[in-house]
Amino acid sequence: MKEKAVFFWSGGKDSALALYKVLKEDRYEVVSLLTTCNEHFQRVSMHGVRLELLEKQAEAVGLPLQKMFVSQRSSNEEYLQRLTESLVAYKAQGVTSFVFGDIFLEDLKRWREDNLAKLGLRGIFPIWRRDSHDLIGEFISLGFGSVICCVNDAYLDQTFLGRNIDTEFVNSLPADVDPCGENGEFHSFAFAGPIFVKPLSIRVGETVYRPVEETQPGNTVSPPICPSSVPRRTKGFWFCDLLPA
């Protein structure tokens, strides 16, 4: 019998590639995708993707979706409370493992593992410690499609929004930007690839700029995503509204 697992799903490229590897390994039964969403904006936290599109994405992947809502000005304490409630509920259903698309942020991985261990659960990290350049090359070669939906203004400007992640995009990134955006330089929305039953048709809508205090109020709205050693100062984030075509 396969071990039951839940995938912490952001909807972006790292999640898509990690899910591909878990499904290909065929050791786990992925019973659900779990996504943190902003209750006020009705969008995916940090990525800014409409819930309507998130739902269509999960349907196209062919897996159930569970949304974990946090308030507009959520604190780390609130996030942990909502997270614990979700973990406990899944554990009662026989889930023993939770899958993440993290690559090299040690503090974040430890944070996740510590919180899971408190409940007798464990984390699975399919793309952990893989070279970012190799990962993005594999992602592209597998035929995944993913569009940039958010950029950190400390590293990229709004002209990167709405671009598909391909070789041209990777080659255009500044030297200090991780090609997978692992330090939070950019976020994406996956719409096609080998995990999709059918690709999604999407179009790019309006562009919006939000200062840090609007996107990361209080402490954080999720686990820490950027290491303290990141030298640049983030003033805000650019988002593009993605819509079903």
Task: Describe the protein in words.
- The chain is built from 7 helices and 10 strands.
- With about 240 residues, the protein is of the alpha/beta class.
- The chain has one domain: Rossmann fold.
- A hairpin with a 4-residue loop joins strand 2 and strand 3.
Structure characteristics:
30% helix; six-stranded mixed beta sheet; alpha/beta
- Coarse morphology: globular
| Distance between the first and last residues' Cα | 40 Å
The secondary structure category is alpha/beta
Overall radius of gyration: 17 Å
Overall number of structural domains: 1
CATH architectural name = 3-Layer(aba) Sandwich
Biggest sheet character: 6 strands, mixed
Briefly say what this structure is.
This protein has helices at residues 13-25, 51-61, 76-92, 106-117, 132-141, 167-172, 212-215, and strands at 3-8, 28-38, 43-44, 65-70, 97-99, 122-124, 145-152, 186-192, 202-211, 236-244.
Q: How would the blueprint of this fold be written?
A:
Elements: E1 3-8, H1 13-25, E2 28-38, E3 43-44, H2 51-61, E4 65-70, H3 76-92, E5 97-99, H4 106-117, E6 122-124, H5 132-141, E7 145-152, H6 167-172, E8 186-192, E9 202-211, H7 212-215, E10 236-244
Parallel strand pairs: 1-2, 1-5, 2-4, 5-6
Antiparallel strand pairs: 2-3, 7-8, 7-10, 9-10
